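re the bet — no i am not wrong, look at it urself. input seq straight from the record:
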Amino acid sequence: MKKISFVCLSLLVFTACKNDSKKEITETTAAKKDTIAVKAPSADPTTPETKEIPALKECTEKQVEYETEQECIFKNTSVDEVYRRTIKDKEIEKAELLLTDLPKESTTKEINQDGLISISYKVSPKKTDIEFQFEGGVTTLSLEQMNKDVKRTIIHSAD
């Protein structure tokens, strides 16, 4: 009876330790969301070494009722570059339907396919707002030049 109790207790402790290590990994991954791991050459070829290189953006996310907002600051870049990068990385739904170059004046592009009604560009000297009108809500992409940095805000709003 003692042996069975010992085995059961050992398994319980082992699984509890395993769950704790998974939590630590999840927390670490979330904290290092904006970094890129790169293999660095090592003096000893048998032990691979990883070196963290920070990405050029810092992001925060928040959710309020039917709205999700992601705000990123891109260091030492331009609004045009962030716009092209957003399309290339497909960081917003239907990004491939955006104009290839950021327009210089406000305009609206009618789409009417796959639930997307239109894309509206509101251009001002330091800020551009791009609004995706979907049948089920609105997604807003806001790009704002702040000295040498660009603040990109993506807001998903349900109807």
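see?? The longest strand covers residues 137-146. told u. also Residues 2-31 form the longest helix (30 residues). so pay up
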